[in-house]
Amino acid sequence: MNKKKELLAYCGLYCGDCAGYSGEIADAAQNLREITQRYKFDQTAKNLFPKELKDYDKFREMINFMTQLKCPKTCRSINGNEVKCEISKCCREKGFYACHECSTFEICDKLKNMSALHGDSCVKNLKSIKKMGIDSWIREGKRFWFADDE
C-alpha cells in the first residue's frame, strides 16, 4: 500500500499533517528540556526571576508532558482489538477505507465529536476525497486540520 495513503485516517484527517505524527512538538519540548537542564535554568528562575517565573515547576511539568506527544502508530496500523476510536471501529466493521465511502458521513455523530478541535475539517476533507479520489487528494487537494482552517 502507498505509504502516503496509509497516513489518511478513517475520519479524513491526514496524519502526515499532524504534530503528533511528525513529533515536532515532542522533539522541541525535549530539546528545551535538555537546554534548561544543562543551564540549570531552575536556579535562574528561582534566583533571578522569582516573581516572573514563580510557576516554573508547573512549566517544567508541562514540558515533560509535551515530550510524550508523539503518535506511536497511525489509526490504520493499530491492531483491530486495540482500536479505541469509534470512527475507526465503524469503518473497519463496514469494510470502508475511510468515512468518505459512507453515505451518511456528513451528518455522522462520530465525526461531529471531532469538531471541538477540528471543526468541520473532517467533513471538508472527506467531501474532497469523495470527489477527487484518495491519491489525487493526497497529491493535490487542500487538506484541512483545524477548526479555523480556510
List the helices and strands and how they pair.
Blueprint: H1 3-6, H2 19-22, H3 24-38, H4 41-47, H5 56-66, H6 86-94, H7 109-112, H8 115-118, H9 121-132, H10 134-140
Helix pairs in contact: 3-5, 9-10
Q: What do you see in this structure?
A:
With 150 residues, the chain is an all-alpha fold. The chain has two domains: 3-18 and 75-140, no CATH class; 21-66, no CATH class. 51% of the residues lie in helices and 0% in strands. It has ten helices and no strands. The protein has helices spanning 3-6, 19-22, 24-38, 41-47, 56-66, 86-94, 109-112, 115-118, 121-132, 134-140. It is elongated. The chain starts with a helix and ends in a 10-residue tail after the last helix. The model has no long low-confidence stretch (mean pLDDT 93).
Offer a quick outline of the entry.
This protein has 150 residues and is mainly alpha-helical.
Mean pLDDT across the residues is 93
Total DSSP E strands: 0
Sum up the overall morphology in one term. Answer: elongated
Compute the number of structural domains. Answer: 2
H/E element sequence = HHHHHHHHHH
Biggest beta sheet attributes: none
Gap from first CA to last CA: 30 Å
Task: Give descriptors for this structure.
elongated, 10 helices, 150 residues, mainly alpha
